[in-house]
Amino acid sequence: MKPRKLIVTAVAAGILVVWSFPVLWALLTSFKTERDVLAYPPKLIFTPTLASYADVLFGSASVLPNLGSSLVVASLATALAMLIAIPAAYALARLEFPAKRGTGFYVLATQMLPPVGLIIPYYLVMQKLAVLDTYAGLIVIYLTFSLPFAIWLLVSYFEDIPREMEEAALLDRASRLRALWHVILPQVRGGIAVTAIFVFLNAWNEFLFAVVLGGNRVRTVTVAMFNFISVEQTLWAKLAAGAVLAMAPVILLGLLAQRHIVKGLTVGAVKGGGRR
Amino acid sequence: MSAAGTVRLEGIVKRHGAVTVLHGIDLAIAAGEFFALLGPSGSGKTTTLRILAGLEPHDAGRVIQDGVDVTYREPGDRDVAMVFQSYALYPHMSVYENIAFPLRMVGTPTPELDLAVREAAMKVHIDHLLARKPGQLSGGQQQRCALARAIVRKPKLFLLDEPLSNLDAKLRLETRVELRKLQRALGVTTVYVTHDQEEAMTIADRIAVFIEGRIVQIGTPNDVFEKPASIVVAAFIGSPPMNLLPGMIVRGRLTIGELDCVLDRDGLGDGAVTVGLRPGALSFASDGIPGRVELVEDLGDSSIVNVEVGDQRVKVRTQHRPGVREGEAVHLHFDATALHLFDRDSGARL
Asked: Among A95, A161, A165, A173, which would you mutate to test the B interface (most chain B Cβ atoms within 10 Å of its Cβ)?
């Protein structure tokens, strides 16, 4: 191996170890008893138990309903976001309309606000509308940050499709909507998949809004895990088991779509410049 | 051949912000005509084609098809088919689906559609490739696929935007001939954009020469070649283009450098002119314009001899080996009928 390659490999391995440490720690801890977790010095060799998983799945503090809530919130938020973002991104990429630049910037600007600053206004508005702690309320709030993200990611995919493609379709007597459906969308399938995955991950992993604006009737898995931490004690093994259960679907999703995601993140990096 | 298919452009003006791209284009194309828009890049020929297709909005003027004003019609409502320079094939569809697309969009019944697709594919010799995706085709095959997609619905007007520019030289020559044959067979009015004057000369019934957003001449290839309307056209048409030398007319006599000859044309006033001479109209003789051979370019069946005349370079095309050597002093002879005279100031043909 050349020295350069050796260094790159070593650095990559280092990053991998640091990055995967919390995940491995959670995985190990989830198989320990609460007593083993607190043992000092930490036990690397212990008798693994599924007790925490049994508890977390079927016990009194089961996170199964919460996984269900997360699934509902994340899936619906993703579906709605894509439904709105696809036509919006297409319009921004292709159509000429008044205040197009302004609209584009406005969409992006909403991404620049720190989410924590919005919590109180959101809370008050949702309270007035009586949608606090409802699926509808939480999903709409998730749209506020996933939509701009989805729109801007999709715009770059749409811009990568040559304009002549849909001009040809228009001349072939397709309406704009049919040109979009038959000619453009099939070509941005990959981009749509990547965007949907990102939106889903963001919603699935979200904690701040979920804990403040939901929490009782609608309790997502991230919020539920937080319940294992209380003033008197922290149930580390259960927390870890819950975390592993919460991480599993997204890690699986990430691995399945890895190739697309990497391509999605580098879109426009090589030719044409992508996003405007 | 259908009588339908006439096209007229009236005073088309197109601006991009402060820049005027087209300064009032007037054009009338007859039914079934093969009409070329010829000009250097940036001269507005492609923009004109796109305005014809309805793909580009313009600032003033009208587009008239078969006597009907279609200026504000959507591209799909104009019965126009176009082959793009990039072909714009739909990469996710098979060749069959690409060709079928225009028919699917108007709900053609399947048996009829199938027949039309196969017929169109046959005409351009790609009927054995129908199952492939465009990415699996060679450049020439892609171009044929784009052609098939355009002819399958028998449009009134056929627009071609530099369709041969992405092909290699040999294929370009072959496709040129086939394109012409296809157009004759279909009898569809065709507007063809190219920057290649040789292509335009060989393929078109008539040519409109575009220079800087204006049409400077419309005519048959012969007209444009034999009687260029101005210095710009003269300098653009022909390969190599026309030699342009400064001259002076005084009392019916023309002086070019050291050469002085009688003009056999009446009605020319005294003054400075530009003399145009096609490289093929010049030959070596014992008298004529004196010069020195600078370089001989051997093209195999012909030669281009570069001759230094004063501080100018004149190109001479000879059919055989020229019989002159580099550095040799020569005289350039020409027939008086081969002379083109242009006004030195306005550039207009005299």
From this structure: A173
What 3-state class would DSSP assign to B79?
coil
Chain B: give the shortest CA distance to residue A274, in Å: 20
The structure's pTM equals 0.80
Which secondary-structure segment (H or E) carries B303? strand B303-309
Top residue of B16, B90, B145, B153 to mutate, by most chain A CBs within 10 Å, is B90
Query: Please, what is the angle between helix A100-109 and helix A135-160, to 10°?
Result: 130
Domains and CATH numbers, chain A: 61-265 (1.10.3720.10)
Q: What is the domain partition of chain B in residue ranges?
A: 7-233, 243-343
Domain B243-343 CATH superfamily = Nucleic acid-binding proteins (2.40.50.140)
Task: Supply the ipTM of this predicted assembly.
Answer: 0.83
Mean pLDDT, consecutive 10-residue stretches, chain A (276 aa), reads 88 93 90 86 84 88 90 95 94 87 82 85 94 93 91 90 91 92 90 90 92 88 86 86 90 81 58 35
Distance from B214 to chain A by nearest Cα, in Å? 25
User: Edge-to-edge, what's the strand order for the sheet holding B157-161?
Assistant: B80-83, B157-161, B189-194, B34-38, B206-211, B214-219
What is the distance between the alpha carbons of residues A11 and A5, in angstroms, rounded to a whole number? 10
- Whether A168 sits inside 8 A of B88 (CB atoms) is yes
Question: In terms of residues, how long is chain B?
Answer: 350
First to last CA, chain A: 41
Domain B7-233 has CATH 3.40.50.300: yes
